[in-house]
Amino acid sequence: MLNLDKENFGPQVLEAKGLVLVDFWSPKCEPCLALLPAVEELAGRYPAVKFTKLNILENRRLAIGQRVMGLPTILVYRDGEKAAELSQDFQIEDVEEKLKELCP
């Protein structure tokens, strides 16, 4: 999974073609840390999707700019536009369902 920051978020997410999943997380967020291995495992099953993650402690303004107000949050972008959002009370199965809906 590609680590995002304020320098590469635009080119890797907002200017990217296709689907990009962004896992907004924090090292202080237990549910985020528990979810991360499952998200990484999904990355292997969906090669058409670019999987990325953004540590909000290091990129707070960027997270707020994307309207991420709670953790864990996963946003899926299609051609730079937000196509799906999963926030706080969701399971990895919900993420996979959303990817199945969005994948061509």
Write the layout of secondary structure elements.
Elements: E1 2-4, H1 9-14, E2 19-25, H2 30-45, E3 49-55, H3 60-65, E4 73-78, E5 81-87, H4 92-102
CATH superfamily: Glutaredoxin
Number of helices: 4
Radius of gyration: 12 Å
Class per helix and strand makeup: alpha/beta
The low-confidence runs, each spanning 5 or more residues with pLDDT under 50, are none
Q: Secondary-structure element sequence?
A: EHEHEHEEH
CATH topology: Glutaredoxin
- Span from first to last CA? 21 Å
Strand order of the largest sheet: 1-3-2-4-5
User: Percentage of helical residues?
Assistant: 25-40%
Number of domains: 1
Main beta sheet strand tally, sense and closure: 5 strands, mixed
Shape type:
globular
Q: How many DSSP-defined strands?
A: 5
CATH architecture: 3-Layer(aba) Sandwich
Strand percentage, roughly?
25-35%
Q: Residue-averaged pLDDT, rounded?
A: 96
CATH class: Alpha Beta
